[in-house]
Amino acid sequence: MPANLPPQYYELEREYTREHDPREKLRLAKELLRVMPKHKGTDKLQAEMKAKISKLKKQIDGGAKSHGARQATAHDHIDKEGAGQVILIGPPNCGKSSLVETLTHAKPIVADYPYTTREPMTGMTVFETVQIQLIDTPPISSEMYENYLSGLIRNCDLVVMVADLAAKTMVEDIRFILSKLEEKRIILQSEVTEEPEDPRLCYRKTIVCGHKEYEDESGVMLGTLKEMFPGFVVVPTSIIDDDSLAAFQKAIFDALSIMRVYTKPVGHDPDYNDPIILPIAGTVEQAAEALHKDFAHKLKFAKIWGEGKFDGQRVQGDFQLSDGDIIEFHM
Ligand SMILES: Nc1nc2c(ncn2[C@@H]2O[C@H](COP(=O)(O)OP(=O)(O)OP(=O)(O)O)[C@@H](O)[C@H]2O)c(=O)[nH]1
Ligand SMILES: [Mg+2]
What we know:
The chain has about 325 residues and is α/β, with parallel strands linked by helices.
């Protein structure tokens, strides 16, 4: 039986053959397997690709052990925690670690010289009742690009591009990062409305942070930054301006496109400490599933309190919820 492979398969295969970095090669191999039509005609090809994937995995693990680079491999992926995973990237010394240190309990090293951060570090920031995971990262510049950053960016829910409003080289620094990411086939977008047709590409939703706002009294640098990112949310921040940090947290929350729903046991008050996190316009059924996978099947109806609803309005599983709604499940 002929394999009948789609044209994108051949493009990916060419890319795969040319690639030398084993981690990138592994990603492409997985992508090749994913786009390969699954039928009798591709059985052999599928088996071959699975063998290549397992060989590459061994090569990466082996390399990590023999070169003492085990930690670098481990940085390829950071398990998600909380309502969203947000990665802060930017040029050296722009203040990524300072932001993570101020907004979370993490203790990254902050210093007044570049290239301080060598490894990613995570911390949880709390916006109102929502826990959001922030990742501090090593800088990106013509002198440094940690390859694992591509994997981290591809896996995250939101990118924050941190720009240094105090740096004379801000424009070049940011342009360099954008072109470096493009080289890695990562495109930062203000809103990701569709998946790329080319499976090698990755679109990532991004907001921009103009940090060290007080060093830019005239606002000229912030204006330039906004021009560089038309249509993007651009938030000016400073470590010593609490209002700016609160606005930054809110911008992150808004960009994650999530909402909070509070549960209420029958005859009790709502629990405001531990909201269910759902995508915007999530349904009663999704809320039930988030609590327990059996709940959605058992659900007879729910009662809802919230803006634009009658108190205790009776609804079914397909009802769309809004941020801040209170829900009482009836099984
Ligand atoms: N003026 C001003 N300086 C700041 C602000 N935030 C951080 N800094 C200073 O900027 C310098 C760099 O801060 P870091 O947080 O280490 O920067 P980084 O981006 O993590 O740097 P690398 O890890 O080297 O990439 C330090 O001297 C900080 O004290 C701010 O809001 N305003
Ligand atoms: Mg740092």
